[in-house]
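pls design
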């Protein structure tokens, strides 16, 4: 690490603190050449996830878009906002830790549907009707029969 005052690369860390959310590390350093102190920050580089849509288009993963879709599916159910935010966090964490930064939209939909299925059946059916593009009543009926089994 280069001293911002004298440009020397000889320094020692005198204090280290982790941020409240655990995403940053703040380090107080002492330059061994000029004796001045300065602060550096260390953070994890954000990974850009790309969603491959059914029609072949690609777009950046958007947490807020996923959250809004879940909010719509969970309207008038007992699913809390915390539970919705937890699903978004879990899905994003799983995607980041996956093998690729490019993920098919279908896979994301399946992940969310599995989580909703355990949480609330009505929200699951609502989400699935959009995700799986139900066209008519028979599509709903098939999904309901699978759910009842």
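designed seq:
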């Amino acid at each position: 690490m280069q001293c911002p005052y004298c440009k020397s690369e000889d320094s020692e860390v005198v204090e280290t603190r982790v941020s409240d959310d655990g995403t940053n590390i703040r380090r107080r350093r002492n330059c061994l050449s000029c004796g001045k102190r300065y602060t550096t920050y260390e953070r994890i580089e954000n990974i850009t996830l790309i969603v491959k849509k059914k029609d072949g288009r690609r777009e950046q993963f958007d947490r807020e878009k996923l959250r809004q879709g879940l909010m719509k599916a969970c309207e008038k159910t007992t699913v809390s906002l915390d539970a919705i935010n937890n699903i978004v966090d879990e899905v994003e964490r799983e995607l980041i830790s996956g093998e690729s930064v490019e993920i098919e939209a279908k896979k994301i939909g399946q992940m969310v549907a599995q989580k909703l299925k355990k949480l609330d059946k009505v929200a699951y059916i609502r989400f699935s009707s959009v995700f799986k593009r139900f066209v008519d009543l028979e599509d709903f009926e098939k999904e309901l029969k699978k759910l009842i089994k």
